[in-house]
Specification:
Elements lengths: L4 H9 L11 E6 L3 E12 L2 E8 L11 E4 L7 E8 L5 H7 L4 E6 L4 E10 L2 E5 L5 E4 L4 E5 L12 E8 L3 E11 L2 E11 L5 E12 L5 E10 L27 E6 L2 E6 L3 E3 L3 E14 L1 E6 L1 H4 L2 E9 L13 E8 L5 E9 L7 E25 L2 E12 L5 E8 L4 E4 L5 E4 L3 E8 L4 E10 L1
Parallel strand pairs: 1-15, 13-22, 20-26
Antiparallel strand pairs: 1-2, 2-12, 3-11, 4-12, 5-11, 6-7, 6-10, 7-8, 8-9, 13-14, 14-19, 15-17, 15-18, 16-17, 20-21, 21-24, 22-23, 24-25, 25-30, 26-29, 27-30, 28-29
Amino acid sequence: MEHPFWLVLFVTLLPLLALAAEPKIAVTVYNEDLALVREARSLKLVKGSQSYAYSGVAAQIDATSVHFRAVDPSAGITLLEQDYEFDLVGTERLLQKYIDEQVIATAENGAVHSGKLLSAQDGDIVLLDSGGKVQALKAAKLQSVEFPSLPEGLRTRPTLVWLLESSKAGDHETEISYLTGGLSWHAEYVAVLEAAENAAQLNGWVSIDNQSGATYTDARVKLVAGDVNRIQPEPQVRAMFRKEAAMAMDSQFEEKALFEYHLYTLQRPATLKDKQIKQLSLFPAAHTPVTKLYSYDGAFDGSKVKVKLEFKNSQANGLGMPLPKGVVRVYKQDTDGAQEFIGEDRLDHTPKDEKVRLSLGNAFDIVGERIVKDVREVSRSSRQETVQIKLRNHKSEEVVVNVIEHFGGDWSFIGKTPTIAVKEAGKAEFQVRVPAGEETAFEYTVLYK
């Protein structure tokens, strides 16, 4: 039997929050505009059926994902009905609610106008006074509009309205969990390349973006890295509803495996304010060896030779934590001591002990040239092609360029080729040394069948 996605998350992730030492709110944030919110709250109930307004939930809550339970099962609390009320107090909503009702409007010049509200559009209002005179007042000229009371059905905050049945009166500890949109997180990394260009200092940060419509105070924060499958709902009008080891460095996040993903738990409570981006250090600066690489893909890049940095995400290299996807920005210190930006690339989710390769830009002093010298039909079902590659190095030191060539169909090399570093179904990579201030050229011939 397949269980709903939110229920699987709830059963997997929901800790008991009744302990006094634990925060009352826990938030698990996923990469793609999704969070699981869990909250412990004491409810004062009477015996029997009653209505309870549970306010302060996220404005982007998925009301169908709400799970409610009493910590003490003997309390006999049952959730019978639930309404999600999101018709919030605001000038436009108040005006619409008071059509055909008496209001008092004060203009910016101090003039007071009272009467029946006939129309309200974009802040402009039309009043019918006691003498039968119609007055049209522009929003820009209005200082205030007074309403006799708050209309029924309007809320100051998004609210779940429950019909509860309780077998006991008194204070009851309860827990609620729900999924909400408007919360997401991503990682950013800063790498400072050392002068010799063979090592770098790498820092990791996470940014949590809260646009959910709620603030989570002193929450226990968890971050899930991985590509979680979600069913995309059909467009509709919103309806009412009645273990791996942690990284061996002094990090404020504890990392561990969760199903086929990775979970990062902040080791202290944090407040996630609505309309706020909070940045937290993922791990302190790590000193890791790096290798500078040059690559030339003439079929796609013309004459440009790309420069890349490569390092291994291993404990021996000062790392070893599964790295969540994010942007890596790379700097290098100039001779005057200032750090200069030299490029950036996007890092995908990277397990430990895997290599990371970052593309930083194009090498200024290395130029490539790709020439198709000869194409001939060998037979009705085969073709032979000869390609020449030229690499010119204007630097003061020798470089090694990784030349990438692409092939289609059934193919094989004929005759001599340079050193082949990689050979796959549709690609081959050659390692080519180019002395300082010189040009290196080579040819290869390929037979297509």
